[in-house]
Amino acid sequence: MSDAQLIARAQSGDEQAFATLFDQHKRRVYSLCLRMTGDMAEAEDLSQEAFLQLFRKIATFRGESAFSTWLHRLVVNVVLMHLRRKGLQQVSLDDVDASQDEPVKREYGDDDKRLLHSIDRITLSRAIEGLPPGYKAVLVLHDIEGYEHNEIAQILNCSVGNSKSQLHKARLKLREVLRSQRLKILSAGSGHGSGVLGDG
Amino acid sequence: MSAYEGEGIQVWSSEACRRFDLQLQPYLEGEDRPELIAHAAECAFCAAVLADLLLVRDAASAIGPEEPPARVWANVRATLAEEGLIRPRRQPRRAWADWFLRPVPAAGMAALLLLGFLSLRTRGYLHLHPQYRPTPIAAQSSDPQLESSVAEMEHVFQAQSATLDPAMKLAYEKSLETLDSEIQECLSSLEHEPGDGLAREYLASAYHQKAQVLASALGVDDGR
């Protein structure tokens, strides 16, 4: 059954249609909430809130945009509102780390030419959590959830160019975070506590 | 290309490196940039940057979506029902259900189920922890009691899996395999870094999900 048929049935209150829509989109919604907040309990609450808002508003959905785009825009708004309420960090999608406007940092030690060799899921998840919200949203939507830039632009209400640029900066930032994590581990493992980049 | 060397740190900077920086984003977006590739072949630093960013991109795309706990839908559904937004779908009654709902067969079936349950307990198949409830579940650190219950349930599942419908069996086995691999990944992370809170949280979640899958496979009432 297509999204349009399911939505039409959900608009008439069909429980099975709600359940199917939930089932089709629950992983992407929950993952987006989880990656944006880095907290399972918050991700659960926010997924719940996003789906409730979605189902309450479903009667107003007219199909001008893809259903998943509409849903994800709603999810991002729910998450950003939550982060604003928490007041823990700047949550404007345009408000990002200005240091990333600098070119790629060109420093490395001789023993560390290739900065990353493999990344496990947990390390990566933790590094993503540390990104500013604007970077995080674009990176999660593009690299993890597989959205195209034009879709992300619609979801985040920004330009395609902005989405591309945020993504690039997010990846550079992520590399920097992963690199410093790896260097910490190397430094601890070799008994050097200085944290200096390589030993020459 | 100029290079500063001192204290084991090298800082590379050249016009070619700057052009590489500018071309990096379009290249990663899929545009053809032969100059970037040629430069990466000559410049060790830029080659490392490129390799790292490709690795970051690929690793992120391999993360994959996470499964939310079953209670998310239960809560959404309950709220929608309270608000009167859904009307339950009436299932067409099947012929066998009419038979099943007759008083005598229903009582007989209840007796059979009770006998079956007692027989499993007597043979030592069912020793689920009395306090074990698959839901509601809160994300928390790994729980030895839960792990032990999961191990027992898995044992029962293995003993009974031959009796399951082959498609259901395969689906359950695939879910369990995925969760086992997640558990292994978390354990390995914790082995390297015992204080890793995120790995512990993922581990607890994986155990809870495994308990839910096993409970569903075994038809254990979760109290909802």
Structure explained in plain terms:
- The complex is a heterodimer of chains A (200) and B (224).
- Chain A has 200 residues and is mainly α.
- Chain A is built from eight helices and one strand; from the N terminus they run H-H-H-H-E-H-H-H-H.
- In chain A, helix 2 crosses helix 4.
- The longest helix of chain B is centred in the last third of the chain and has 27 residues.
- In chain B, helix 1 packs across helix 2 and helix 1 packs parallel to helix 3.
- With 224 residues, chain B is mainly α.
- In chain B, strand 1 and strand 2 form a beta hairpin.
- The termini of chain B are far apart.
- The chains are: A mainly alpha (200), B mainly alpha (224).
- The interface between A and B is large, with 68 and 60 residues.
Residue share in helices of chain A?
Answer: 55-70%
Strand-pairing-aware structural class of chain B: mainly alpha
| Protein chain pair with the most extensive contact, residues per chain | A-B, 68 and 60 residues
**How many helical elements of chain A?**
8
Strand portion of chain A, in percent? Answer: under 5%
Helix content of chain B: 55-70%
Largest sheet of chain A: none
Strand content of chain B: under 5%
The CA-CA distance between the termini of chain A, in Å, is 62 Å
Which residue ranges of chain B are poorly predicted, with pLDDT under 50 across at least 5 consecutive positions?
A: 1-11, 91-107, 109-118, 125-141
